[in-house]
Amino acid sequence: MHMIAQAPPEAQNKRLIIAKIAVVVLYAVGVVGLSLPEYRELFLKLTPAQLLLTLVILLGYHKGWSDAFPIFATAAFWIGFGAEIIGIHTGYLFGDYVYGTTLGPKLWDVPIVIGVNWFILVYLTGTVFHKATDNDYYAALLGATAMTVIDYIMEPVAVALDFWYWKFEIIPAGNYFAWFGVAFLIHLIYRKANFDRENPLAAWMLVAMILFFTILNFTLEL
């Protein structure tokens, strides 16, 4: 049986440093472009591409390519996406809202990249907290709580940038409870799936995303 040669530790460290710099540049440029009115329209069009590039970079450092991983990834995408479909068409779960055009092509009135976003957020928060406890339910509680905090930070920015709109311009409290519930369910699947959860880029990227939305809360006219 042939063994796949791995790069020496020095090369791996350099590659990781380059990836971290790329993440900083990706989100820093996004903050600047979205904060400047003269460039905002261009950067809004690039939003889906930024999210997909984030996915590619993140998966480039994923180590657990077992059969369980694509099952988890598919479940995360479709549970998150399905919850959004229910929310859009019924008003249940998250409340009354509609998606704008910023997030790109839609399926059943929901941007396709929303499913990608659910996967990325669960993957990042799950990876960051996966060593915090051996209890799957407590770990899911931590991950879902972190995602709810992120949603709270993201909501004003999302509305300002035409991601989505709320009826009467009011974000209902039920949105956060439903977000927590869906996130908790997907986090449980994440914990039950049998794959290596190590990703040296996950914490760095999660911080970059949180700072991205936090800074935009101050630079945009919300």
From TrEMBL:
Cited InterPro entries: CruF-like (IPR007354)
UniProt entry tagged with the keyword Nucleotidyltransferase: no
Alphabetical UniProt keywords: Membrane, Transmembrane, Transmembrane helix
Superkingdom, natural source: Bacteria
Residue ranges of the TM segments: 16-36, 42-61, 68-95, 107-125, 137-154, 174-190, 202-220
Keyword hit for NAD: no
Pfam families xrefs: Caroten_synth
Protein name per UniProt: Putative membrane protein
